[in-house]
Design a protein that fits this description.
Distance between the termini: 48 Å
Helix content: 25-40%
Number of helices: 25
Length: 697
């Protein structure tokens, strides 16, 4: 078939016996435009054209907006254009910029880099307007799954059928409070030109990234990624736009930013739910979330690691594809993708799931050397030094997926945070603390797994959708009593099932006679993605860091990194690359560090949960699931080093404030230029080209 010519090196496509070979998504797309020729191989079916229907124009993209900018308008346009080019990977299909000057000569730039997911064409291009007067202009990134219901509920009439079009109309009807009506993932910026108001908002979990900045001239900046802000000399400071919040600035008055997503589990840190788990309600909620996210008019697939979460998403997608509204290829089998080093645990499990579900399965192999080659690029796209172990395989897999013509994938992020799925939850001391840790993990997802999922895939122009992080699933799970989530492998239910991690989710889909998954997959122990793709990758990264970072440099890490000095050579290396991209020599290097999470972690725990085990507190920490002794099956072969330098390191840390507040980093103001040029200079050539008047080392 045509797709075979585009497979990446060493990729293997596993085709279950239940489904013969089929053409690639690009061939399928072409078949809708013209009658297909008869295939030489009679096993390859002819695909009939789908009937033309009116579809919403769904838009994933990169957005960049600079409002109330002063100075030379022509030069500013060139400057904004050059900065916006750094978002090209997020929207390779089209580009739009709207420029406006107000009566005082201040300029507004609204830039949109588009990735077309539904009904590609001009009607989905941005910026968007509510009418021909352009009194309300806006740019948006994301998916509004209930846009049709909102159009009907509020009588919204517009020739533009983009799902994001409702944003502007709802604002005109209800003001900023309309945000709570949206069901989806989104980040948007509105300029109300009639009333001189700026409004911006981000979805409940921060599934769509957004950053905001203040200009030295009083301008206001918003961007999908930090790389458009970190080195512009006109930016005074920048930060993460917090999830679940709405920003409003009226005229020259100070801006306000308030939480719009405010369930009790977020607003009350002492809240411990008491509602008993309802398995049927949970199953129906998850199935509905997956079904909603099948809306697409381009080829899409599922990421299948073979673990519980991705396998459930795949199973539901296979079952629900014919029932979904506005979906691509409803009568065709689902494509699934997995990645790993040959022989990796995930590959074996994913193959088994694909065989049972009848997906067209694509298995991609990589080597530790290929993963190491990608490190600088991955950190540039991630804009953090965390989540790198899991991001590199996802980055490599996304490249392969894009080469085959897919533009959207479903993924299983979220269940581990909502249901306590990480292996360290085995040692939760009590239900209240179990829930508190689920709350901490879920509220910080925008700096961890959600960030990784979006930026690793969008680095190749692929949208990722995460059904388990829908507002409905989250609110159901986080209002479920923690006693039903607690782990006790020595205890079994009436059916003989052990109370493993994510027991409630497993049990909800354990339906005899109508099996969603093979039992050995449904009840398989948690394997973190960075481990599951192959232990050689995790161990190889650590070995590479040992060669890259000398003992002498590591001994002086507190001087090199006064803010939370790294406790391993692996993190010394990752932070060195991050600094070269975003910190060293840049005026706002402290802002870059303030966007990153810090603290010791065991098997992806929060720093607060490390106190659950005295041995964890004595160690340097490690995010691998193998760090949990007497729980992970391979823990006896994995060594977590003791942290014997805590006292020395703590003496060098002054003025540090933890947990997401602004902090001061090294190599910023007052550092001699010659010293600022030091570091991993071999990575500097991988930075994006600077815009006009942008600092370059």
């Amino acid at each position: 078939v045509a797709s075979t010519a585009r497979r990446v090196r060493r990729a293997r496509v596993v085709r279950p016996r239940a489904h013969p070979s089929r053409a690639s998504p690009r061939v399928l797309a072409a078949s809708r435009a013209r009658p297909p020729a008869r295939a030489p191989d009679s096993r390859v079916p002819a695909f009939r054209a789908l009937p033309r229907v009116e579809r919403a124009r769904t838009i994933m993209c990169g957005i960049f907006s600079v409002l109330r900018l002063t100075g030379d308008a022509r030069k500013n346009r060139q400057r904004v254009y050059q900065l916006a080019k750094r978002l090209r990977h997020r929207g390779p299909d089209s580009y739009g910029m709207e420029v406006r000057l107000d009566d005082a000569g201040r300029q507004t730039f609204m830039v949109h880099k588009r990735l077309s997911i539904v009904a590609p064409g001009k009607s989905g291009d941005q910026p968007l307007f509510t009418d021909a007067t352009k009194r309300t202009a806006f740019i948006a990134n994301g998916e509004i799954y209930n846009h049709a219901e909102l159009r009907e509920k509020y009588g919204i009439v517009s020739e533009n059928k983009s799902d994001c079009q409702v944003i502007g109309h709802l604002y005109e009807q209800h003001g900023p409070s309309f945000v709570s009506e949206l069901d989806g993932m989104f980040a948007f910026v509105i300029e109300d030109r009639e009333n001189d108001v700026i409004v911006a908002a981000r979805d409940h979990m921060g599934k769509i990234p957004m950053y905001m900045a203040n200009g030295k001239d009083g301008s206001v900046w918003f961007s999908s990624e930090m790389k458009t802000l970190h080195d512009d000399p006109g930016v005074a400071n920048y930060e993460i736009f917090p999830p679940g919040h709405v920003y409003v600035k009226k005229g020259d008055a100070p801006a306000t930013i308030e939480r719009w997503y405010n369930p009790q589990w977020i607003t009350d840190e002492n809240y411990v739910p008491t509602k008993e788990a309802n398995l049927e309600e949970l199953r129906e909620c998850v199935v509905d979330a997956v079904t909603k996210r099948l809306m697409a008019d381009v080829p899409y697939a599922v990421l299948l690691s073979g673990g519980l979460d991705s396998s459930l998403i795949t199973s539901i997608a296979v079952r629900q594809r014919k029932l979904a509204k506005n979906t691509y290829g409803a009568d065709e089998p689902v494509h699934s993708f997995s990645i790993g080093i040959k022989g990796a645990p995930d590959l074996v499990a994913a193959r088994k799931v694909a065989e049972q579900l009848g997906t067209i399965h694509h298995e991609v192999h990589f080597t530790p050397e290929e993963a190491l080659d990608a490190l600088p690029d991955v950190i540039w796209h991630l804009e953090t030094f965390e989540q790198v172990r899991a991001s590199v395989p996802m980055y490599l897999l996304s490249r392969h997926i894009k080469s085959l013509g897919f533009k959207m994938v479903l993924s299983g992020e979220g269940a581990d945070e909502l249901f306590g799925g990480y292996l360290y939850f085995h040692k939760a001391p009590n239900p209240a603390e179990f829930h508190a840790e689920c709350r901490r993990k879920t509220m910080r997802l925008h700096q961890w797994d959600v960030l990784r999922a979006n930026k690793s895939t969008m680095s190749w122009g692929i949208e990722v959708r995460t059904p388990l992080l829908s507002q409905q699933v989250i609110d159901l799970a986080m209002n479920m009593r923690p006693e039903d989530k607690m782990i006790d492998v020595n205890k079994k239910d009436a059916d003989g099932r052990p109370y493993l991690e994510k027991y409630i989710l497993r049990k909800a889909f354990d339906t005899p006679g109508d099996s969603y998954l093979p039992q050995e997959v449904l009840w398989r122990q948690k394997e973190q993605f960075s481990d599951g793709v192959g232990y050689d990758w995790v161990d190889g990264l650590a070995a590479h860091a040992e060669l890259e970072v000398s003992d002498e440099d590591f001994a002086r890490r507190a001087q090199r990194f006064p803010l939370h000095p790294p406790t391993t050579k692996e993190y010394y290396l990752l932070r060195s690359i991050f600094e070269e991209h975003f910190v060293t020599g840049f005026e706002n290097g402290d802002c870059a560090y303030a966007t990153c999470p810090f603290g010791k972690s065991i098997a992806c725990s929060t720093p607060e949960a490390v106190c659950w085990d005295p041995e964890w507190e004595k160690s340097v920490g490690d995010i691998s699931g193998r760090a949990v002794k007497n729980v992970h099956v391979a823990a006896d072969k994995f060594d977590v080093k003791k942290d014997g330098t805590a006292a020395t390191i703590s003496a060098t840390m002054t003025g540090v404030r933890e947990r997401g507040v602004r902090v001061k980093a090294r190599a910023v103001r007052g550092v001699p230029q010659q010293q600022a040029r030091r570091g991993h200079v071999r990575f500097s050539g991988l930075r994006a080209s600077p815009a006009s008047k942008v600092l370059l080392l």
